[in-house]
Amino acid sequence: MSNKEKTVKRWLPVVRLPHPDGTFPGERGLMLREPSGSTSQPSMVSIRDSSAGGSSSQPQSLDDSSGGKLLTSSLNVLAKPFVGPGKDQPDSESLGLKSPRLLPVMPGPCPSQDPVGPAGSRPMLVRGGDELTMLIQRTPSSLLEPLTFFVSWQGVPTLAYRGFPPAITQLKTVLERMHPTLPKENPGSRWPKTSLGALRDRKRLTPHQLDLLLRICREEGALMQAGGLQPLEVNRAALCIFECRSLERLMSWAEVPFAPSVDSSEPEPEELGRVEKILAEADEEEYWFAASKDGNRVSHYREEHVGVSLVFGLPLVDGDNNAGRLWSFIHRFRMRVDLELPGMYNWFADCSLHVTLRAIMG
């Protein structure tokens, strides 16, 4: 192997962004590679060693104590979570890392670069890509009304809402006009719903089980409507990079607030009709064929899959009485399904429950 082909490899843990509730989704391993003899000047990024025990991230030397620089011309984020010492993932102590370190990362491309600046200074970098953030901030908050529980295709239990309010539909329309290269919207985000769980692998609903589940949905949905539950205020959106379709594992969750003014307009007739049409499918005799189809079992939602979506995370309780009532209805529904259809379903983590506003990628 020539000198040009030799690489230096290092494994380090990296700090993850927290969930909105302050909990961390876990840490991942980072593998850094540098062709021997590299003389490039990288920029700096501070990360934390998971074994350090503290939360400080003070700058430290860029030289690896074992010799050689921790430089990189290609940064690979691994698909597996960092789970500690192992055959393929040495612990931090073995790498001589006992405190936060600064790791160099090569700067990415920028849309434009201002060549004008004080003599001897680095040119000013001008970055674009703020359109989505500004669009969200200019969109008024709105109301999303829980309607009923429902069994979607492949037997997925969901919480359905009356329809997207005008503020959200306008946001989606403008976003697509601004960025025509976006993939076509998935059918699943054309109507507002929250997927609550999925059938376990190798499980399939029988016609009798589907009838039983639909009856539970109707009865629990009626209790929810009679329980004084108020519409949810959609006052923020999160641009999330997820590692699985259930959003139980995240790479990033960046929330942006909507404008503080609340648009309480009812959903347009087209939005109301779309939801009503989907819910009415369950009354058709052949709906069992759709509800019992292969696919969308729990492994589909929890397997490794990276994508980007704009979502509204269901509000955590935190003293919010309306949110508390919503969670009580969701938990009651789940408990009843487990009681009458034992061993059929796995439920997604509460902190992952959301309404997809618009899938961006994957």
Question: Could you characterize what this model shows?
Answer:
The chain is of the alpha+beta class and 362 residues long. The protein has two domains: 100 residues, no CATH class; 230 residues, no CATH class. It is 23% helix and 28% strand. The strands form seven sheets. Strands 15-14-17-19 form a four-stranded antiparallel β-sheet. It has a three-stranded antiparallel β-sheet with strand order 1-2-4, with no helix packed on it. Helix 1 runs antiparallel to helix 2 and helix 3 packs antiparallel against helix 7. The longest helix has 20 residues. The two termini are 38 Å apart.
Q: Concise description?
A:
About 25% of the residues lie in helices and about 30% in strands. The chain has seven helices and 19 strands.
Helix content: 10-25%
Give the total of domains: 2
Q: Which residues form runs of ≥5 with pLDDT under 50?
A: 2-20, 22-126
Strand content: 25-35%
How many H/I helical runs? 7
Question: Distance between the terminal alpha carbons, to the nearest Å?
Answer: 38 Å
| Computed Rg | 24 Å
Number of beta strands:
19
Mean pLDDT: 76
The SS-based structural class is: alpha+beta
Taken from the alpha-carbon principal axes, the silhouette is: globular
